[in-house]
Design a protein that fits this description.
Shape: globular
Order of helices and strands: EEEHEEHHHEHEHEHEHEHEHHEEEH
Strand content: 15-25%
Helix content: 25-40%
Largest sheet: 5 strands, parallel
C-alpha cells in the first residue's frame, strides 16, 4: 500500500460577490489528488481535496515542502497497520516535518487541502463513507442520520438590493433550508437593519437568521450593531471583529446576550483553545466555526475537539465553516452541531453532493465511499481537469 503520486493545481472560484471586507472576483483555491496503488472496484484509489473559500491557492507550499516530504518518506511509516490503510496522522506529521510552531496562516490552508485528500483516500480504501468511518473510529460508532445545515449567502454585489436579497432567501427556503445566513457590515447600520428585517419577513423568526460581519467592526461598531439586533434574537451574530481580537469578542459577549459565533479565521487547535480561554465565548449558547479545510485539516480538528472536551464544551456547539462535504461528513460522524452549505456561491466547489436532499433544514448523507466528491459531477470534472487527470 503506497502513495504513488500527489497532484496539485490552482483553480478559480471567482465571483463578483463581496462581504464587508473583501471581494471574491480574483479568488482561487488549491485542489489536490492523492494517487495510491490500492485498487477498489477495478480502479486505483484517488483521494481528492481542496481548500475552503476566502483564501488563495497555496501551490508553492504544497509543491516545495509538503508534497516532496510525503513522496520521499519510507512508505512503511505512512501505513496504519491496525486498519490496513493509510495513516492520516503519520502523513500529516510527515508533511509538517521541520515546520516551526506558530504562524498559522497560509501553511494551514495548504495542509487543509492535502489532509482532505488523504482522508478521502482512507475512506475509499476502507470502502466506507467518511462519516461512518469517523463514527466508528472516534465516536463509539454513534452518528447523526441527518445534519442541521444552513446556506451561507446574503452577499453584497453590484445591483443587488433588498428585493434581490429577499428572492435569494426565498430560494433557499424552496430548497429545503430553514436557517439562513446573510452578510452585514458592508453598508450602514440603518441599511443593514432594513436588510435584516426584509429577510425576517421571509424566514419568519430571528431564530432562523444568522448574520455575519466578517471581522469588519471595531468594538464600538460591534456594540452598536449588537444593540440594534438584540430584539431580533438571531440564530447568531458572527465574527463581529478581527478574529484574533479576543477582548473585543469578550466585551461584546458581556453586552449582547444572544448567541455569538466565530472561529472560521482561526487556523489551529491552539488558536481554538485561546478563543475558549480568552474570547468570552459562552458554552451554553455560542458557536465555534473552525474550518478544517483552512486549519490543517480533519487531523488537526480532532485535536481541537479534544481541547473542546477538556474545556467542558459540547461538540454540538461546533458548526464548521466552509460549506463543503468534508465538514458535512464530520458533522454527521462526530455528531457536531451542523454544517454550513454553499448552494449558490463558490461553485462548483460549494455545496453538497447532487443527490443529498435538504428537508426541514437538515441533510441526509449518502453511503458511497469517501467524502462524496464524485457525487458532485460538475465539481469532480473540474477537479480532474485542473489536476490533468484523464
Amino acid at each position: 500500500m503506497e502513495i504513488v503520486n500527489i497532484r496539485e493545481a490552482t483553480a478559480p472560484i471567482a465571483s463578483e460577490i463581496r462581504n464587508a471586507v473583501i471581494s471574491f472576483k480574483d479568488m482561487t483555491i488549491s485542489v489536490i489528488a492523492v494517487e495510491t496503488d490500492v485498487v477498489r472496484d477495478a480502479k486505483p484509489v484517488i483521494g481528492y481535496g481542496f481548500m475552503s473559500n476566502g483564501r488563495y491557492a497555496q501551490g508553492g507550499i504544497l509543491r516545495e515542502r509538503f508534497i516532496p516530504r510525503i513522496l520521499a518518506a519510507d512508505p512503511a511509516i505512512l501505513i496504519d497497520e491496525t486498519n490496513d490503510n493509510l495513516d492520516p496522522g503519520a502523513i500529516w506529521s510527515t508533511f509538517m516535518t521541520n515546520e516551526k510552531p506558530g504562524g498559522h496562516g497560509d501553511r494551514a490552508h495548504a495542509a487543509g487541502a492535502l489532509d482532505m485528500a488523504v482522508w478521502d483516500a482512507v475512506a475509499k480504501i476502507a470502502q466506507k463513507p467518511l462519516w461512518r468511518l469517523l463514527a466508528e473510529r472516534y465516536n463509539g460508532g454513534h452518528f447523526d442520520a441527518k445534519v442541521l445545515v444552513y446556506p451561507g449567502g446574503g452577499y453584497y454585489y453590484p445591483g443587488k438590493e433588498i428585493e434581490g436579497l429577499v428572492t435569494e432567501m426565498r430560494g433557499y427556503q424552496d430548497e429545503g433550508y430553514k436557517v439562513v445566513k446573510m452578510k452585514i457590515g458592508g453598508t450602514s447600520l440603518n441599511v443593514d437593519i432594513e436588510r435584516i428585517e426584509a429577510v425576517l419577513g421571509v424566514v419568519g423568526d430571528g431564530a432562523n437568521l444568522a448574520v455575519d460581519a466578517n471581522g469588519r467592526f471595531d468594538l464600538q461598531t460591534a456594540l452598536a450593531y449588537g444593540r440594534a439586533m438584540q430584539p431580533y434574537r438571531l440564530f447568531w451574530y458572527e465574527e463581529p471583529g478581527d478574529p484574533l481580537d479576543f477582548q473585543l469578542n469578550a466585551v461584546l459577549a458581556e453586552h449582547y446576550d444572544a448567541p455569538l459565533a466565530t472561529g472560521e479565521n482561526l487556523f489551529s487547535a491552539i488558536d481554538g483553545r485561546n478563543l475558549l480561554r480568552h474570547g468570552g465565548m459562552r458554552a451554553d449558547r455560542d458557536w465555534i466555526q473552525l474550518d478544517p479545510a483552512l486549519a490543517y485539516g480533519l487531523t488537526e480538528y480532532l485535536r481541537f475537539l479534544e481541547i473542546l472536551d477538556r474545556h467542558g464544551w459540547s461538540r454540538r456547539r461546533v458548526i464548521p465553516h466552509g460549506g463543503h462535504q468534508l465538514a458535512l461528513n464530520m458533522a454527521a460522524g462526530l455528531q457536531l452541531g451542523g454544517s454550513e452549505s454553499y448552494p449558490g456561491v463558490f461553485q462548483p466547489y460549494g455545496g453538497f453532493a447532487d443527490n443529498i436532499p435538504i428537508e426541514g433544514g437538515y441533510a441526509r448523507l449518502p453511503e458511497e465511499p469517501g467524502i462524496g466528491i464524485e457525487l458532485k459531477p460538475v465539481m469532480f470534472a473540474e477537479l480532474r481537469k485542473y489536476l490533468e487527470l484523464a
